[in-house]
């Protein structure tokens, strides 16, 4: 018999996280704890309003399967009980953590995969004035960040990107528009990004408008984000995205 605990936590952010959809100054998460035979597994998730999720709705989803979790619900059974989303993610992570701790193994050992010696991750430059974004890029580069993810909305694109490129001329840049652009003018923006050495453009168009990317000729890879949720999303992305 497992003990199940579900609760909310809020973590203040060092810097407000500003993207095209809005700004937040704290990270609110739902934490799931599963305890069995004195061993505790923990998972967490961030509910995403973009997909109709909230702290309350995600906690309700988890608590709705509380009896099954207490009775020994497996990861395979979880896939059938909850849809893909924040709630299933938190429970799935808690189940993996519980198994790893019970068996005294790392997650990589459970999965049978070797960990890489080094992983380069992207550091985010949030939306601000051109000067603010340039200063952020320069500071991140000086701290050792090699890959910068630049958040943009539909305004001041060239001014912001030129300032960032001048501030961090050797950094690898990727741009994330978070669905804020339109098909009109997209070709010219892609050319600008390519001229500035941007390596990839992420989700420029709204997910329900990305059919405009079919047969769209562009000089840099375009990556799906909001358009891709599960493997079932993949067929409709063919011919629209490279990543």
Description of the structure:
There is one protein chain. By secondary structure, the chain is an alpha/beta fold. It folds into two domains: 109 residues, Enolase-like, N-terminal domain (Enolase-like, domain 1), CATH 3.30.390; 114 residues, Alpha-Beta Barrel (TIM Barrel). The chain contains nine helices and eight strands. The strands form two sheets. Strands 4-5-6-7-8 form a five-stranded parallel sheet, covered by helices on one side. Helix 1 crosses helix 4 and helix 6 packs parallel to helix 7. The longest helix has 18 residues.
Q: How would you briefly describe this protein structure?
A:
Belongs to the mandelate racemase/muconate lactonizing enzyme family. The protein is of the alpha/beta class and 243 residues long.
Topology as H/E string? Answer: EEEHHHHHEHEHEHEEH
Helix vs. strand class: alpha/beta
Strand content: 15-25%
Domain unit count:
2
Taking strands numbered 1, 2, ... along the chain, how are they ordered across the largest sheet? 4-5-6-7-8
Identify the overall geometry: globular
What is the CATH C-level name of the largest domain? Alpha Beta
Number of helical runs?
9
CATH topology grouping of the largest domain: TIM Barrel
Helix content: 25-40%
